[in-house]
Amino acid sequence: MIDQEFETYFSLKNGQRVLIRPLQAKDASSMQAGFKTLSQETIINRFLGPKKQISQAELDYFTHFDAHQHFALGAGIQSTPGAELEGVAIARWMRRDELPSQADFALLIQDAYQGQGLGTCLMRLLIQGAKEQGLESLHGTCLAYNQAMQALLKRLGPVRLTRLGNGEIDILLMLTDF
Which of 15, 67, 151, 176 shows a CA-CA span of 20 to 30 A to 101? Predict the structure, then answer.
């Protein structure tokens, strides 16, 4: 079950192991530090435009959630057992208030960890957790030129991609298809 107690390890294609678990309040400083290492391209791909920093309010929102309305998994490296997690990726969904059977999702992988299978792993876990919470669909947006994200989603299973007129693509994952 994907809940607040969930924890697993994943081996990247390069052999490095990352710990995957729900984000916690103590991860805020690691998230802030990790944001500073992102390339401008990764920031634009995730936030659909430039962004200079993550605010304290955003950090609080990202790290405080109830796992029913809002859930986030983080992936990180621990230099030694018990050491603070160095965050390398985040996957999250946020239930839509107006349509509670639907949620918006987002995925962010640090540049050095992209192309290692971590995004696919996190999305599979996110989908599993969303289904366990009774969600019927996940929705997202990516830039039309973000071929890596589109390819990742297509590898997962049936995905509906709709090109919007503003250079963005609307993403729909019907969870009954997974």
Answer: 151
pLDDT-based confidence at residue 7 (cuts at 50, 70, 90): very high
What is the rounded CA–CA span in Å between residue 34 and residue 55?
13
Q: Per residue in 97-109, is it b (16+ CB within 10 Å) or e — as a string?
A: eeeeebbebbbbb
Tens digit of each residue's pLDDT (9 = 90 or more) over 65-94: 888 899 999 999 987 877 777 899 999 999
Interval 107-156: pLDDT, tens? 999 999 999 999 999 999 999 999 999 999 999 999 999 999 999 999 99
Q: In whole angstroms, what is the distance from residue 37 CA to residue 110 CA? A: 8
Q: Which residues pair with 138 in a beta bridge?
A: 103, 173
Give the dihedral of Cα atoms 22, 89, 133, 105; nearest 10 deg.
140
Secondary structure string (H, E, C) spanning 41-94: HHHHHHHCCCCCCCCHHHHHHHHCCCCCCEEEEEEEECCCCCCCCEEEEEEEEE
d(CA 71, CA 106): 11
Q: Give the pLDDT confidence score for residue 2 in this predicted structure.
A: 85
Distance (Å, whole) CA 24 – CA 60: 10
Query: Minimal CA–CA distance to 10: which of 123, 153, 149?
Result: 123
